[in-house]
Amino acid sequence: MSATTPAARRPLPLLTSEQIAGLKPALADVIEYRKSGLSLNHVIGCPLDCGYCVRHLFDNFELKAPRRLMSDEEAVQALIGHRYFRPHKTPIQLFNRATDPMLPVVKPHLFAVLRALDERGMTNHVLIITRWRVEPEDCAVLNSFRNLRLTVLVTHSGIDNPAIEPVDSAIAARSLATLYQHAEHYRTVLYWRPIVPGLNDSDEHLERARELSAHAHATVFTGLFFRREIADYYATNGLPMPYDDTARRKIMPEVAERRILDFFHVPDRPDPWGALFRKTSCAVAYAHGEADYNGHVGIEELCDICPADQVARCTAARVRPDLEEVSAAARQLGATGPVEITERAIIVEGLDEPPRYFLQHGFAYQCHDRDKPHHYRQHGRAPIGWAAENGPRTP
Ligand code: SF4
């Protein structure tokens, strides 16, 4: 199949500087460092209307028609010139905050950015998350990139309440199958989320996810971001409230996790849970046959469902970093107080998430804020749904 870019479309309109000045500053800032990578978002706006969309956090939910904040080339320059970007090392995410990258009007910009990065010889991981249509001709374009380590994550929740999720989950299911069937130079991951107890965790939902996972190089399951702005939207629109409270981190209750793990468990196969992961970067790394770039292997209990050869890979790649080197890097980023390195993580004070992710990805070792401890087993998730409110502190 040839890798011709699908029929040329007119580029998306650019917002004027006055319009950009009227956006929330965080939305106008096209680059955000997130745990799975440095995220480029110079297209904003989406018609898919998922009720739990993070665009609520940016007051952007009403912008249905995607618009650009800058040209693709300017965006690429901003990304590779960013102070936290490291060629071949920093994982990248494209259009994962304010639009869907596979919308027909957005896709040409996605491909243009991928092409620009690939032509520069960048071998960084690139994560693309979609719930929209992916056709065989799209796969041909995705296969045409020679340098990037590309992963397409397909969001599938199975939520069938159209008021919460108007897009038919069957679209994502077809896209996943198409991507998997045509994958040569990229990998595809079933992004099973957001899982909400009582809404999409029935046996039928779990069975469907298990079927879909056969069409993916890996599967990751995760919970719901339920922040105040999203809760307000639910209340205003009379949607069933998934939780009584909101949380800074994703909510993945212990009981729901247990149900999923039990459902996927096949005791007499070599890897009893197959290619099922709790963390996005673990699924991406596994799909490419590499160790996790977030160093989750330090949080041993996360790895208890992981395939044995992957545990061996992550363990072999793990190097406890040198305290002096880490301290110097952390100080340069503005860390205050003592820097500590434990078996699980680098512990810092005074650094917010972007510089912590910079350290984490640089050393492939978890980097935590002393004031926001991760708790045993509920690692990186909200305390909601875990019996011991906050659980024991990690050692
Ligand atoms: S061994 Fe642990 S860190 Fe590595 S991919 Fe598996 S779960 Fe993730």
Brief sketch in words of this structure:
It contains 13 helices and 13 strands. The strands form 3 sheets. Strands 1-2-5-6-7-8-9-10 form an 8-stranded mixed beta sheet, sandwiched between helices. It has 395 residues and is α/β, with parallel strands linked by helices.
Helix-and-strand structural type: alpha/beta
Order of helices and strands: HHEEEEHEHEHEHEHEHHEHHHEEHE
**Cα Rg:** 20 Å
Proportion of β residues? 5-15%
Percent helix, as a range, is 25-40%
State the helix count.
13
Count the strands?
Answer: 13
- Largest beta-sheet details: 8 strands, mixed
Instruction: Name the strands of the widest sheet in spatial order.
Output: 1-2-5-6-7-8-9-10
Small-molecule binders here are:
iron/sulfur cluster
Write down the overall geometry: globular
Which blocks of ≥5 consecutive residues have pLDDT under 50?
1-6, 388-395
Mean pLDDT: 91
Intertermini distance: 53 Å
Tag the structure with descriptive keywords.
eight-stranded mixed β-sheet; globular; 14% strand; binds iron/sulfur cluster; alpha/beta; three-stranded mixed β-sheet; 395 residues; 13 helices
